[in-house]
Amino acid sequence: EVQLVQSGAEVKKPGESLKISCKGSGYSFTSYWIGWVRQMPGKGLEWMGIIYPGDSDTRYSPSFQGQVTISADKSISTAYLQWSSLKASDTAMYYCARIQAAAGLDAFDIWGQGTMVTVSS
Amino acid sequence: DIQMTQSPSTLSASVGDRVTITCRASQSISSWLAWYQQKPGKAPKLLIYKASSLESGVPSRFSGSGSGTEFTLTISSLQPDDFATYYCQQYNSALTFGGGTKVEIK
Asked: DSSP letters of B26-77?
């Protein structure tokens, strides 16, 4: 079964760092782009960035460039999203998702279950 | 950046109704458009890609049409399981989601 499994919910304080993960299985992890999507409480979906695990080529949405870092470790089929200094406004559900075409931009066909990040003092 | 505008933002309908949701792009995206369904507390689910291609396993009552800047998602006969929020997404240039359309019970 093709699936993405994300790490568990996090509760952090402002200024703390965080790295959440997304582990792929059931397919060739290095051959498909993985994206990260933010959903703030009660709001819509926002694309943050994508990474190609095969060579770690990464593209960021202008809205998130410099705010987060996306990485991948192909040896363990895992993509990451990290923050160096969290803010209360980072409180959201974060989803990873696979882009269905191996060649480039396309729809997200497989989604992780989501990781809820809560940032509060 | 390409902006995606969905309408309406909320739609009240009854079981059996034909429902249409519109998505407009700020510039032409050819047919590079997807539709997703999201239920509360769940991850989005891909319904339609390339504007009109039905994802495997998705009921045939869902259909998509359009090209260029205007697109529609149609549910031919609304079922109880279809009450959810629907999002469009363009992937012609980077990626952008529409603001969502919540389909509520009338």
From this structure: SS--TT-EEEEEE-TTS--EEEEETTTEEPTT--TTEEEEEETTEEEEEESS
